[in-house]
Amino acid sequence: MDLNKIYKARGNAYLVGGAVRNLLLAEKINDLDLIISGLSEEKFLELFSDAKKVGTDFEVFLLKDREKNIKYEITLIKDDELHKDLKRRDFTINSIAIELKELRLIDPFNGLSDLILGRLEITDKNSFKKDPLRIYRSFRLAIKYNLKISEKTLKHLLLNAEQLKGIYPERVFEELKKIILIDEASQFFWLLKKLDLLKYHFPELKELIGVKQPEEHHPEGDAFTHTMLAFEEIIRLTAKPEFTDRKKFMLRYAILVHDLGKAATPPEEYPHHYDHEEYGLAILDTIKARQDYILPEKTYKAASLVIKQHMRVYYFNKMKPGKIVRLFEDIKRSPLSIEEFALLLIADDQGRAKDKEIPDYIDEMINLYHRMYADTGGDDIDQDKYQGEAFGEQLFQYRCQYIKKAREN
Ligand SMILES: Nc1ccn([C@@H]2O[C@H](COP(=O)(O)OP(=O)(O)OP(=O)(O)O)[C@@H](O)[C@H]2O)c(=O)n1
User: What is the residue range of the signal peptide feature (predicted)?
Assistant: First the structure.
């Protein structure tokens, strides 16, 4: 973006928000938020004809530099409005500007010293009142950048917590996507638990608190603790460049919900949870209904698969061929590869305060899956004789025979 065009037209440009914060923290920078002062909308569009206006409340323009792969989000303000713009932002560390001509730091709320001291502080005492989503943002920023939420900020946060009820689910979900991608994301849920804030948007996770599990399998404690440990495991297993953010989200979300059904067990059956897969699927559907059009279909399908199949596979070596073929068909229809499904099983298994050996059936399961699909297919069935459902049934039987033989060898 050629800033000289702005200066020639007697305007000025400032870098603001997350990019300044990350620059000062030497962290990765995503999009660039710019403030341009002293230019009318017409003049700005004359100079940058590619800019697209978005939003209605604020004059925000998007501009993409495809060559450099940079996205600019630009706000136009009057000459004397910079301070006002910085004051309406959430935290002092996000209320710093860099004047780009002389590279001057403009920091009216002492954001830099808060950054240096590792402190998260609201810019204005009404920050949370103006936008309660900032409560979740504060946890994300504190965890991601290792900041301590100041006492004053925590006080105002708790005073406004009730207002979390009113935020649009879409916004919460967008925030959740960012949270789940952090390496230390389990801390977010532990914090919500500690402050009794799970009830607003994560009531199903709250229900897992205090739910007993068999001690010999789960010495770590209740179903909430187990879910968090398994969540940490899947984060560790997927914190690699080969996983796209979308994939990471899908796998991590699936683990967060894999045991929700345990909350529905009648307490007289504790510590066992005989039907938690069925209960879990029903609970996932209530979440989906509440988040209509928000929860991505693929994430929902991956989560369903794990809820339904994570226990059955535990006894893989004892599973009948028919059950194995059905399991493989479920995986094949899902958005997950067998290897990704296996990662979820490993995370569930390792997410316990127990032995740390990877279950030995995992390799066999992956192997058998690939062999079965490579060696059996539609061509093995007489297509003139069997059609429609009958064809499917024949293929199923054929595959059952295949699994049986493969295991005998
Ligand atoms: N609820 C919000 C959201 C955003 N902002 C301001 O808008 C800037 C940009 O917001 P966004 O891109 O959502 O977040 P970042 O802080 O940039 O963090 P990240 O890039 O990690 O999402 C923030 O720095 C903050 O100054 C705010 O005050 N209140």
Answer: none
